[in-house]
Amino acid sequence: MSLADVLNLGCMCRTLKTERLQAQLETDTRLAGMAARLALSHPHLFSNSAVFMDPAIADMLARAVAAIERVIALPAYLEHALAQAPAIARYDFGPAGVFMGYDFHIANDLPHLIEINTNAGGAFLNAALSRAHTECCAPMHPLFEGAGAHPPFEDSFMTMFRAEWLAQRGDAPLRSVLIVDDDPQAQYLAPEFELACELFKHHGLIAAVGDARQLRWDAGALWHPALPEGVQVDLVYNRVTDFDLSDPAHQALRSAYEAGAAVVTPHPRAHALYANKSNLITLSDDALLARWGVPAQDRQLLQQVVPRTEAVTPAVADDLWARRRTLFFKPVAGYGAKAAYRGDKLTRRVWGKITAGGFVAQALVPPSERMVNVDGVPTRLKLDVRAYTYRGQVQLLAARSYQGQTTNFRTEGGGFSPVVVLPVGMPPMQELAQAMALHPLNET
Fold it and tell me: What is the mean pLDDT of each run of 10 residues along the chain (444 residues)?
């Protein structure tokens, strides 16, 4: 096992400090009470334990993200992806899309890309969470010196949103930001809408959270009742899962986007180029990438990181059924692990739905595990890692631990965890094991 594996399975320190989490979440008086509300409404949102990652894996993960971005920028890739996308994806106003989320399983000392999401949730919550965790138990403090450094994530988030505005509007002043979703207060991650809103206000912008269905397109501008009267929407932080804005309820947002009257991020083009699961077929097709001129070094990296993915069609249905135990099936336009199935759990009824169309089959990569302390009982949880990125650069790493087929935020002891990338040159494993043996179920 790697050193990170040893720590993830052997170190059960509870490092989350609730008072520190409260301080990080409630950075403004308008956010007072958020920590208490989350404890009641989201009891499994935050894990008490950090997740460890070897520096070589973190480096490979970052290089893989950069390599994928280079592939996506190729004219041949753009033509291929957009040919399968709705017409609205052909609009290109300049913005890249905020909070791209690359999700990985870590196995065999490699990061394996599971999927890419365009409006990946949790970045604001994880930024606060990372600063609310302390180091491990006292005997291990010297071993992690420098491992828990916390950069000012919110500064990079604000720089990202301003870069999106600059890409479309240039030097024009940005005055207002609207964070939109359908019925935003009912969304599971609604608390981070509040955090985002306060960040924008802290930087001098007029900001609000609003229901996307209440937007109004009038006189060449986008309006929403959540903003002060007479203030139009300059920038939309878009969290709706109607990725191509085809729902009639989103017609105002679609009209403003197509007219370039508001900067919308993330947007339909980003989803078509990144998050459509058919793109995983392309990214795992070495022969195709070679024909497009992708350098051998990038192709070799992608072959290691991107599990082979193939389209589910009636022509290959029998073959896929025979291999189903080694595959994971996902809807092409899905998100949040909805309607995703492990092949070894499939029934014939569900298989009929899958073979009807709109699914891909991805080589199954079992997730790594984290041992946590649940009421004094060592408990193994599965975990995945999310890299929040912007224009090919990793901004923040976070993990999600869970039981079941997919992440669910319903698991005792599970939820979001900060990722601690271990320093290069850690002490020998024997010394580390001795330190852990002294405090197997540390509560502090």
Answer: 88 86 89 93 94 95 98 98 97 98 95 96 94 65 54 90 98 98 96 96 97 98 98 98 97 98 98 96 98 98 98 94 96 75 91 91 95 93 97 96 86 93 69 54 45
Q: How many CB atoms lie within 10 A of CB 61?
A: 24
Contact present, 372 and 39 (Cβ < 8 Å)? no
Helices 190-202 and 123-132: angle between axes, nearest 10 degrees: 80
For the chain, how far is it from start to end, CA to CA, in angstroms?
Answer: 26
Three state DSSP letters for 407-434 = CCCCCCCCEEEEEEECCCCCCCHHHHHH
- Locate the DSSP E strands across 248-322: 263-265, 309-311
Burial 11-50 (b: 16+ CB within 10 A, else e): bbbbbbbeebbbebbbeeeebeebbeebeeebebbbbbbb
Neighbour count for residue 114 (Cβ, 10 Å)? 23
Q: In DSSP terms, which residues pair with 46 in a beta bridge? A: 416
Amino acid at 280: L
Q: Is 260 left (phi over 0), alpha (psi -120 to 50) or beta?
A: left
Q: Token match 């793109």: residue? A: 279
Q: What is the distance between the alpha carbons of residues 267 and 264, in angstroms, rounded to a whole number?
A: 6
Rounded Cα gap, residues 159 and 151, in angstroms: 14
The pTM of this model reads 0.93
Q: Specify the DSSP class assigned to residue 122.
A: -
**CA dist., res. 382 & res. 45, Å (int):** 15
Q: What does the alpha-carbon distance between residue 293 and residue 164 come to, in Å, rounded to a whole number?
A: 29
